[in-house]
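Hey, I was hoping to borrow your eyes for a little while. For a while now I've been wondering how a particular protein folds. The fold is given in discrete form, as structure tokens running alongside the sequence. Could you read through the record and tell me how the tokens relate to the sequence? Take your time with it, there's no hurry, and the full record follows here:
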Amino acid sequence: MSETLELIRRSVGGHVRALSLIIFSGMVAQALALLQPKLGQNFIDEAQHGIPSSQTVFLMIVTIIGYAALNFAQQLLLARVGEDGTFQAREQTIRTLLHSSPAAIKSRPSGWYSQRLTGDASLIKGVVSSVSAILQSLILGIGSCAALLIININVFAVSFSVTCVSIFFSAIASIPLRSWQWRLQETATKMIVGVEEMATASNILAAFNATGRMRDKLTEYAKQSQSVGYGLSARSAAFSSASGLLTQIANIVTLLYGAYNVTRGKMDFAQLIAFVMYLNCLVGSISRFSGGIGQMQQARAGYSRLREMQNHGLSDQNGPSRTVTHIENKGPAKLEFRDVSLRYPGENHFSLSHLNFRAEPGKITALIGESGGGKTSCINLIESFVKPSEGSVLMDEKSIAEINIDAYRKSIGYVDQDSILLTGTVRENLDPSGKGYSVDEMLEALGRACITSVSGKTGIDLLDMKVGEQGRLLSGGQRQRISLARALLAKPRILVLDEPTSSLDGVTEESIRLLFNELREETTIILSTHRFSLASSSDWAVILKQGRIVNQGTPRDLSANSPYYRYLAESWKGKDCRTEQTTA
């Protein structure tokens, strides 16, 4: 009940006047609806007694037109309030997503969020209309019952008993329909997730001849949807037919018993007509009441799933502990891991255990080690995508958990491992937050990142070039260099790079390595890499294995005392020899 009241309050917020107009127009409309059977009875009485009925006919026309006009105005207001409520729900959902931890967001498939944003948020528009339907149905139902009792209490008792049986059946039979509707929505979500997966991995599916397996998977989802849809349709058809049959039986019983009373002189023909009209009003009000309840339940279900995101760990990253709002914004910063351990939500084991290392200001710190060793987890902690389970990550001796997330990230430049770009132009990707960098600044950053031309386009033409959805019109190396240019534009105090040269050729990689050396005076560089050329150029290297630091030191020290570092060096020398032989 409290959740329903909270949902109503959120939906009505800012629309009290509109809601008042909706309720008032609804009350007047139902009063006109209750007046129509009485006018019908007067018309028949006047016709039977030869009394002119022009005034009654005029009033009937006025009530019918008035009812239609009020209903039209009401629907317009409901549409306005409903769409505003949907917009607010979507806006809140978007805000929640964009202020949440990336790690928490990635724990769900993207289709799940699409369904919340498009499907569940749209259910919110039914809140105000359901409240209006429930209130109006109560007015119409109470008024109809009072009129029926006044006309003939015995006929009312018989017809109401039969009608109650019909209503009880409808209420019971509609319960399984809701579960089938839920199942249909779940299968639709599976379809959305599957199609998004197919579109994202189309190259892999084609390369490994896996399209057949994906086709079978999507076909299975389609079959599930077909089966559930057929089941729902069959049950809905049976429900509608049975409800219609019971309604017809109730009408026939009412007419027969009413006609019997007319022949016995206990009520006249005009009263019987009015009785039937009022009974139809009563049945209609009950149907509308149950429809309003069902619509409210759907809205509650949608609202509950939207709130589930909060329970799933999606919460504002600027929690109450982030009290530091001003930090130094110039010059290289120092970053330190102090006894840091990390366990991701839902995991039983620690991904990182008791890490201690420092990235000194203006130095290059390399995180190296085997795949799965914990390098990307360290990057996630530095970027505050996740929080340490134990220990602290500090910047200039301040725990980053206490620094306002927006202020902190202004000091951090980030190049992710996948080099994801946003749909749009190169210019829009270089300035995703709209800081207003000049053309010269952007072109300079692109030049430093060794990308001055793409498909023959240079200068402003390059900046205005479309990159496609998530940058798919560009190669991996081009995306990686644009991502690097984006980070350089921010002039960060700490530049964090996750496998920054994984998609680059040897010549470009060497240029980027030299760039990192030049950047020492501007920023502190922390990078994860498998490339020996980058590791050997660092000032300090941290070797990770299974989430633990097994060694750290300068490249010279590690060459002497780290078997893994020597293996990395020997592997790279072997690669260089093979490259020379191939060139020769």
